[in-house]
Amino acid sequence: MTQHANKENNNIVSGHKCVSRFFEDLHKPLNDLAAIKEADHCLYCYDAPCSQACPTSIDIPTFIHQIRTGNITGAAHTILSENIMGGTCARVCPTEVLCEEACVHNKRDNGDDPVKIGLLQRYATDHLMLSNAPHPFTRATESGRHIAVIGAGPAGLSCAHRAAMLGHKVTIYEAKAKAGGLNEYGLAAYKMLDDFAAREVAFLLGIGGMDVQYGKRLGRDISLDKLRKDHDALFIGIGLGGTNDLGLEGEDMTGVVNAIDFIESIRQSDDPATLETGQNILVIGGGNTAIDAAVQAKKLGANSVTLAYRRGAEQMGATGYEIDLARKSGVVIQLWSKPVALHGGDTITSVTFEQTRLEGGKLVGTGEKYDIACDMLLKAIGQKLKEPDLADLAIKGGKLVISSQYETSISGIFAGGDCIGSGQDLTVQAVEDGKQAAIAMDGWLKTN
Amino acid sequence: MADLTCNIAGIDSINPFWLASAPPTDKYINVVRAFKAGWGGVVWKTLGEDPPVINVSSRYGAHYNDSRSIQGINNIELISDRPLEVNLREIEQVRREWPDRVIIGSMMATVDESAWKDLAIKIANSGVHGIELNLGCPHGMCERDMGSAIGQVPEMIEQTTRWVREAVDIPVFTKLTPNITDILWSAAAARAGGAHAVSLINTVNSVISVDLDAMAPTPVVDGKGSHGGYCGSAVKPIALHMVAEIARSAETQGIDISAIGGIGNWRDAAEFISLGANGLQVCTAAMLYGFRIVDDMIAGLSAFMDSKGYRTLDDFRGLAIKNTVNWNELNMNFDSKAVIDQDACIECGRCHIACEDTSHQAIAFKVARDGKRSFTVIDEDCVGCNLCALICPVPDCIEMRPVKNDLPYLTWPEHPKNPLGEI
Ligand SMILES: Cc1cc2nc3c(=O)[nH]c(=O)nc-3n(C[C@H](O)[C@H](O)[C@H](O)COP(=O)(O)O)c2cc1C
Ligand code: SF4
To answer: A68 in contact with B at a CB cutoff of 8 Å?
Structure first.
């Protein structure tokens, strides 16, 4: 464990007591008995559909079989060998549209009891991370090559870990004061209790060969040109630092906040009770960030939380499970509603919506309008690439262009995670990108 | 409702469910609880001559499956560790209080005529309906030349059975050990000695598991372990076989059978009865779940009999015996093929990998463009082994369908390819 992670662990764990007043685990972790029972539900499929549905291709039947035989450390090893952030993924993956959707139990008559793969994955990875076992992987002999990873989010960390494992030296440049990216700053608190993001970073760095430089923002403190001179290859995993605007008058009023910043303030707070939040909160957007923000706002005690989305439930980025979760938490969901005007003086007081519908596949306003009063408006209508220093790299549709080998338009610069085209706004996809990019870089370094 | 009364060795019982000689029948309080729960009879925990034995602490071990349910247990307990008189007085009391229930006295003694006879007479005088000779205990007692030390020698089985027959005039059950090469020798010896019935099986010799920390067999007694007696669901197949052999072999046919070994529910019970058992004894299942399991044994067996139109146990007793034959009497011309119900299939692939890796590569696996996985049997390669149907997690998804080939019944001795054939 690095010095740094240790320090962070201490101060957040003490604050965690306050956080837990508001947030408890979204899914209760399995105890030993429940884990065995759940593992026993797995049919140990051959060439299993769940593994194929996992973006990181974890060998799910094997790790579950290992839980069944009591080889829980081995199960964790199986998971982490494909997905070093298996612990986070176990908590935040929308398993209902990934592995668990593919579970063959769903194909039974009236079948709706897929194996709880996410919870079993958490059981195994927690077991390993809570034990004092040494880091489970070892590094290949030093290659003498030095890689720069920009951004210590899931993609960057996954890439760094794999590259270190393959024998390369890695320096990670992170703009913020902590590593973890969205795991640390952007996911709902009830998914990442007990300072899990920081513990996972510490665990991952445990393989050695990596150092993290904090407070180094691309374009401000570091530049691609300089990094290219100092390193043999680069990986960009900067995510999407910018947020989309509504494009309406008054977005600068007090109370209009980016949902992602709202979540960050909760995640970084030792005592969320001291946060200044609204009483009547309006969230605009239909993705996971919108849901994470809305549910947390409700749990923090807001009087009313309304989530407005301009299309229908079908089109929402959030899964059916997440939408249900929001409803059960008391969030009112308004579909087919697009904001057309913000009202207020210094502070926002209400938003006018126009109702929408699909006409020949195109979203159009119906002309019917209504107002929702609010004292806080959380914008969750998507993020975008921000970094000015990427000027030379080819960008298409607002994302970095990469080859099948994760290489950008400049040889030796690789990229992955939300900042590339494949980015599906999924932690697990970012982890896969990072891993594959490291493998591709390793191949590239052999000939360059 | 079906009539579940039964008669074994001339003893009437309100139902065929008795508790076997073991801790559940160890003393007054257990036996009364059992009778309250509905058990038809008990075989009292084996009695020996005074002074009573002394047991060790740490006595049972378990064999689990992966989901931590118990397949079987083993034990290193000895016979009753309470004074003979205490046991006999309790037996008398229960006999008085529960006149419609059966109590059999189980006994063992050293190989000495007066030892056997004296003990048998004392037990008979307590009012038991019959006496069971424990010739099976495979641990501890055999090291004192009792239990399986007697049960493994047919001459001694016959001798001890005869001694007890000569000493008392109530029915005699000889309880057999499965730790032998051929159960027929033991059963024939018991019959020659005059036994009215055989009870089987006693426990199977076993080391149930090894404690990998203590590096000793379980149950671990202060760092060491000893082999013990295995019982419970896992031994049922062994017991079924032995019961079937006794029921169908000329030299043993007709002797009453009190079937024991892995009986845990009505279905197990029905299987033993179909192979000729006159009564049943249960130990482990009661130890795992308590006496209440007898409720469903009774209800389930009645429902089964009603559904088949069997009014009494005799209506289906032994019906499976005539279909239990030697391999040489099987029809070599019978052919069956696996048929997978594609609508029921959930695409787990277990049948494919089992057949592919370990059988006859007879299940093809294809993935369609839309990701649908399909598994189909290649008839030419399927030998009809049943493996896929057995492991398929969906009930009735894989059917083993007989092939209509209009060929005559042909046994191996008659088979043209038999090099020893006598055509
Ligand atoms: C703890 C224990 C003690 C036993 N003690 C005796 C005994 O004293 N006399 C005897 O004849 N059989 C004894 N047995 C064997 C049982 O009566 C029975 O034959 C055997 O357990 C198989 O039946 P089951 O599979 O229903 O348990 C004992 C079994 C167990 C588990
Ligand atoms: S019955 Fe046996 S040989 Fe035939 S398909 Fe099934 S596993 Fe293969």
So the answer is: yes
Burial class of residue A345 (count of CB atoms within 10 Å of its CB; 0-12, 13-18, 19+): exposed
Rounded to whole angstroms, the Cα distance separating B220 from B211 reads: 8
Q: Is residue B354's pLDDT more than 90?
A: yes
Cβ of B260 below 6 Å from ligand 1: yes
Task: List the CATH code of the domain at B6-323.
Answer: 3.20.20.70
**B389 C-alpha to ligand 2 centroid (Å):** 8
Residue B306 has pLDDT above 60, yes or no: yes
Beta strands in B234-382 (DSSP E): 256-260, 279-282, 336-340, 363-367, 373-377
Mutation pick from A31, A43, A68, A106 vs chain B, by most beta carbons of B within 10 Å, is A43
Looking from the CA of residue B338, the nearest atom of ligand 2 is 1
Q: What are phi and psi of B303, to 5 degrees?
A: -60, -40
pLDDT tier at A397, thresholds 50, 70, 90: confident
Superfamily of A146-241+385-446 according to CATH: FAD/NAD(P)-binding domain (3.50.50.60)
Mean pLDDT of A240-246: 88
Question: Residue of the nearest CA to atom 2 in ligand 2?
Answer: B385
Tell me if chain B has a CB within 8 Å of the CB of A104: yes
* Under 8 Å between Cβ of B183 and B154: no
What is the average per-residue pLDDT within A348-363?
94
Closest ligand 1 atom, CA of B46? 8
**Closest residue, chain A, to B353 (C-alpha):** A46
The confidence score (pLDDT) of residue B140 equals: 82
Provide, as residue numbers in chain A, all residues whose Cβ is less than 8 Å from the Cβ of B344: 109
Fold match between domain A19-130 and domain A243-379: no
Model confidence at A198, pLDDT cuts 50, 70, 90, reads very high
What residues does each domain of chain B span? 6-323, 329-414
The model's pTM: 0.84
SS3 B64: strand
Give the span between the Cα atoms of B220 and A117, in whole angstroms. Answer: 37
What residues have CB less than 8 Å from B41, skipping those under 6 apart? B11, B13, B17, B18, B19, B101, B102, B103, B104, B129, B279
Residues of A in contact with B352 (CB under 8 A): 46
Residues of A in contact with B395 (CB under 8 A): none
- Contact of A46 with chain B, judged by CB distance below 8 Å, is answered with yes
Residue nearest to atom 22 of ligand 1 (CA): B261
CATH number for the domain formed by residue range(s) A243-379:
3.50.50.60
Task: Label the pairing between strands A280-284 and A304-308.
Answer: parallel
Average pLDDT over residues A187-214: 93
Which of A36, A44, A104 faces B68 most closely, judged by CB atoms?
A36
**Which CATH number is correct for B329-414, 3.20.20.370, 3.40.50.1820, 3.10.105.10, 3.30.70.20?**
3.30.70.20
Q: Across all residues in chain A, what is the average pLDDT? A: 90
Of the listed ranges A110-114, B10-14, B235-239, B318-322, the one predicted with least confidence: A110-114
Handedness of CA A298, A239, A87, A134 (dihedral sign): negative
3 state DSSP class of B268: helix
Would residue B392 show up in a list of annotated catalytic residues for this protein?
Answer: no
Span A122-151, average pLDDT: 95
Domain locations along chain A:
19-130, 146-241+385-446, 243-379
Asked if the Cβ–Cβ distance from B67 to A104 is below 8 Å, we say: no
How far does the centroid of ligand 2 lie from the alpha carbon of residue B373, in Å?
18
For ligand 1, whether the C-beta of B45 sits within 6 Å is yes
pLDDT in tens, A277-301: 889 999 999 998 999 999 999 998 8
Q: What is the CATH number of domain A19-130?
A: 1.10.1060.10
Query: Could you give the dihedral angle defined by the CA atoms of residues B70, B76, B82 and B88, in that order, rounded to the nearest 10 degrees?
Result: 70
Ligand nearest to the CA of B389: 2
Region A325-344 average pLDDT:
94
Mean pLDDT score, B339-359? 96
